[in-house]
Amino acid sequence: MAGVMKLMMCSVLIAAALIASVAPPCDAALSCTAVISFVRPCNPYVTGTGPIGSCCIGASRLKDAARTTSDRQSVCNCLKSVTRGYSQAKFSKAEGIPRLCRINIPYKISPSTDCTKVR
Predict the structure, then answer these.
(1) Are 66 and 30 in contact (CB under 8 A)?
(2) Which region is the signal sequence (predicted)?
(3) Looking at residue 90, which CATH number applies to its domain?
(4) How far are the Cα atoms of 11, 53, 57, 87, 111 from residue 90, in angstroms, in the given order?
(5) Which of 45, 47, 65, 114 is least enclosed by beta carbons within 10 angstroms?
């Protein structure tokens, strides 16, 4: 009996995963966790422990993932909160990533940016 229940639960989980994979995406904004996963490769560059390396790939993918105004505002707010704890040297490096990676974003990476004005 327990084996049958496990099999049924596995079937339900597989079915749920399949449904979720083909369901249309919702308009939810990007989470800060998602933003951080995109820019994690930038950490060595920003902290001065490595080259810019794959940072540009992650930053470019993040820009492409931020399709809506809500997404861009979420990304802005997340980057703003992450950079608050940076020293001036680290902050300057983070601020320069769009330029170095040749990525055009509609706001400045700064703790003083008003993310509600990002479109």
Answers:
(1) yes
(2) 1-28
(3) 1.10.110.10
(4) 49, 16, 19, 5, 13
(5) 114
Eight-class DSSP state of 61: H
**Can you give the length of the chain in residues?**
119
1 assigned to some structural domain: no
Overall number of domains in the chain: 1
Domain span at 94: 28-117
Nearest CA-CA partner of 115 in 85, 78, 90, 68 = 78
Q: Is 8 within the bounds of a domain?
A: no
Q: Each residue of 60-101: pLDDT tens digit? A: 999 999 999 999 999 999 988 888 777 777 888 888 999 999
Domain annotation covers residue 22: no
Tokens representing 44 are: 């060595």
Q: pTM of the entire structure?
A: 0.69
DSSP code per residue over 73-116: HHHHHHHHHHHTT--HHHHHHHHHHHHHTT---SS--STT--GG
What is the rounded CA–CA span in Å between residue 66 and residue 59? 11
